[in-house]
Every structure is written in structure tokens, then in C-alpha cells.
Design brief:
heterodimer, A: alpha+beta, Thiol Ester Dehydrase, Chain A, six-stranded antiparallel beta sheet, 39% strand, elongated, B: alpha+beta, seven-stranded antiparallel beta sheet
């Protein structure tokens, strides 16, 4: 499933993240930061980590719902927030873990953390809310 | 997460995504993105990270346009918090515009908002709020 998911998310492939683990309500991604992930000051662009927080939780929701349910009616993020606690640089490896707080029938709440592999320093923390949109009547 | 732009200069990550700076004047920045296959998520709609990245870039640039380049290089501003609503889906071929405004640029903190629309349409696709902290000035020594 891991590689399959990876192939099906072109933007995650562009970012270059790896899905390390995905099980019901939990997912872990990692990314070794390269020059392409930086902003003009040479540190990681905030958009890299917001992408990973969002993706880790989208995968955690997908793993909770199951492949068939997701295929029939995909979930979509409707709201997210994140705090940026520390900068990360080229060469750093980020580990992003997403955990669901609640899985409902229509709404899923999750929180995710990005830490630096090695010293485990907290780089970013965020929350994402997903909904399964109703089909048009 | 430190936004150290020169007018028109983009982050490496934003170049990778392919968004363009269309206008950059004091207090107003507009960016554009033609959505293609590489911006998609696993469900075939635009990944939320594409929008959050460009909104972050836009609000950082917007605050830079107000603070001025010299002031900013002496004491860069960095995003500390963000919050985004994803209001409408975006698909391949859509032409997006990103616009923002600074709510307040103070001495230590700056607040900005960004809105995303399909070009020529009023309907919002996404809206975000970004909060920046301004570093202590680097000492001249």
C-alpha cells in the first residue's frame, strides 16, 4: 500500500517524501531536506512541512477508512493550522507523524508533528480536519 | 520559514511548484499558478500543501514589501503560525490567483491574510491567516 499511495499522490512525489508506516488512524512520513525545499534564506519553506502534516493525516484517515471506501468517496481537508517552532535546514531529516483524534462518519480530526530525526527536536505541529463530502443529490 | 525575498525573487520550493509572482508593489502582491498533474493529491484534486505553500510565500513577500528590503535583511520575519480553510476543490487546468493583505505590521509581530480564487471568479478556493515574528536586528558587528 505504501508505494501505491506514493504513486497516487504526485505532489508528495514532487516533494520527495517517503511513507514509512500507515495503519488505522496513524501514518509516519520522512523527508531528507534538499536545496529545492528552501526559501531565499536557506531554511525549509513552511509549505514543505504544512504539506507533510496534511499528507500524514490524509493517509491516516485513508488507512482508517479502507481503500474501497476512499475510492468510492474521497475525504478532503477543509481546515488546517500549524505552528512553526524551529527552523530546519538542507541535510536535516524530518519525521512527520500523524494521529487521528477522532474518526466519525463524516468528519475526521487529526494532529501531526514534524520532528528532526536524531535529536527529535519539534519543528512544527499542526491540526487538520477532513470531511467526506456528500455526493450531489 | 524565514522569508527573505527580493522583489520578484521566489523560494526554491515555490519555483519547484511553478507559481509566478505577477505583481509586487508596497502592500500588494499577487501570484499565479496554472495547476497541472504534479500538484495533485492521491484523489486527483490539488494537494492542500500547494495552496498553503504559495499563501505562505505570498504573505511573507507582502510583509517584506511593507517593511522594505534593507529593514528585512537586517531583521528577517518568519512564519510562526498559520491557519487555512480549504473552501473549494481545484483540478488540473485551473488558473489560480493568490492575493493578500497585511492586517498589521508591527515592530515584533506581523499579521497577514491570503485568498485564493480561480482567475476571473469571485468564489473563494482557500483563505488563510499567517502570523509572523520579526527577529531581533542582527548586530552591526
Amino acid at each position: 500500500m505504501t508505494q501505491d499511495e506514493d504513486r497516487r499522490s504526485p505532489f508528495l512525489a514532487l516533494v520527495g517524501a517517503t511513507i514509512e508506516e500507515a495503519r488505522e488512524g496513524y501514518a509516519r512520513l520522512s523527508l531528507k531536506l534538499e536545496q529545492k525545499h528552501t526559501n531565499p534564506n536557506g531554511v525549509m519553506h513552511g509549505g514543505v512541512v504544512t504539506t507533510l502534516l496534511d499528507e500524514a493525516l490524509a493517509i491516516a484517515v485513508g488507512a482508517a477508512r479502507g481503500v474501497d471506501a476512499v475510492r468510492a468517496q474521497p475525504h478532503t481537508a477543509i481546515e488546517m493550522n500549524a505552528s512553526f517552532l524551529a527552523a530546519a535546514r538542507e541535510g536535516d531529516e524530518l519525521v512527520v507523524e500523524g494521529t487521528l483524534l477522532k474518526s466519525g462518519r463524516t468528519v475526521f480530526f487529526g494532529e501531526a508533528e514534524a520532528r528532526k530525526r536524531g535529536d527529535n527536536k519539534l519543528i512544527s505541529k499542526g491540526r487538520v480536519t477532513f470531511v467526506i463530502p456528500k455526493r450531489p443529490a | 520559514m524565514v522569508e527573505a525575498h527580493q522583489p520578484g525573487q521566489r523560494s526554491a520550493f515555490v519555483e519547484e511548484i511553478g507559481a509566478e509572482v505577477e505583481e509586487w508593489i508596497e502592500g500588494y502582491v499577487r501570484m499565479g499558478l496554472r495547476v497541472d498533474e504534479r500538484h495533485m493529491n492521491a484523489h486527483g484534486v490539488m494537494h492542500g500543501g500547494v495552496a498553503t505553500t504559495i499563501m505562505d510565500e505570498l504573505t511573507g513577500a507582502l510583509i517584506a514589501s511593507i517593511r522594505g528590503m534593507e529593514v528585512m535583511f537586517a531583521a528577517p520575519h518568519s512564519t510562526v503560525d498559520m491557519s487555512v480553510s480549504f473552501i473549494g476543490g481545484v483540478s488540473i487546468g485551473d488558473d489560480l490567483i493568490f492575493e493578500g493583505r497585511a492586517t498589521r505590521v508591527g515592530r515584533s509581530v506581523a499579521f497577514a491574510e491570503a485568498e485564493v480564487r480561480k482567475r476571473g471568479e469571485d468564489k473563494l478556493v482557500a483563505k488563510g491567516k499567517f502570523t509572523y515574528v520579526i527577529a531581533q536586528p542582527r548586530s552591526a558587528a
